């Protein structure tokens, strides 16, 4: 026959593994967000390099426009920096919550408060990262609209259609 204590220990361990899977899915989502943030940051850096290269041969009026564009790219990079930092912090808190779950199970001690705090921090950091990313997206779309309006104006067309 099967030992009831061994069966209970196995069920307890299986439950802990099941509970730990939820944060792992969150961690996977955070990793995807970090990938998106990194790709956007690379695009911002490429644009900044291109715009700074154009500054050397630019006239005074064009230099002012390129300077504004660099300012916007700088703001976008700061927003993306915040998003990356917060998402990474959310990932750290998620890993910490999983670790706390396993350590708590090994010690037969309830560490629910710490687990709740870490998982809550993971959700909060991820939420803040998404807000920072949304801000960066707004800056990017505004820059696109401004460039379109500049090109329309130089072609003699009305802006903001």
Fold and architecture overview:
The protein has 161 residues and is an all-alpha fold. Helix content is 89%, strand content 0%. It is built from 3 helices and no strands. It has helices at 4-55, 60-107, 112-154. α1 runs antiparallel to α2 and α2 packs antiparallel against α3.
User: Which structural class do you get from the secondary structure elements?
Assistant: mainly alpha
**How much is the radius of gyration in Å?**
25 Å
Tell me about the largest β-sheet.
none
The shape is: rod-shaped
The residue fraction in helices comes out at over 70%
Number of helices: 3
Strand runs, count: 0
Distance between the termini: 80 Å
Low-confidence segments, ≥5 residues, pLDDT <50?
none
Percent of residues in β-strands: under 5%
Could you give the order of the helices and strands?
A: HHH
Mean pLDDT: 79
In short:
This protein is 89% helix and 0% strand. By secondary structure, it is mainly α.
What is the topology?
Layout: H1 4-55, H2 60-107, H3 112-154
Helix pairs in contact: 1-2, 2-3
Identify the notable features of this structure and list them briefly.
single chain; 161 residues; mainly alpha; 3 helices; rod-shaped
